[in-house]
Amino acid sequence: MILDLEYRPTERNGIQENNRKVIFDLYCTSDDDSHFIIEMEQLSQN
Residue 19 phi/psi, 5° resolution? Predict the structure, then answer.
């Protein structure tokens, strides 16, 4: 179970509009005090 969650947004801009994407890193702490990162990406699609 995740006890703590911290969002860290990072935007990656490419030269062309179709190269742009947004990456969100989620820093998590679980109930057994383990730490891990979940990365989510948002990309443009036609």
Answer: -95, 0
Q: Is 12:24 a contact under the CB 8 Å cutoff?
A: no
**Tens digit of each residue's pLDDT (9 = 90 or more) over 16-34:** 666 667 778 889 999 999 9
| Beta bridge partners of residue 10, listed in sequence order | 23
The reported pTM is 0.58
Contacts within 8 Å (CB) and 24+ apart, 8-14: none
Q: Are 41 and 22 in contact (CB under 8 A)?
A: yes
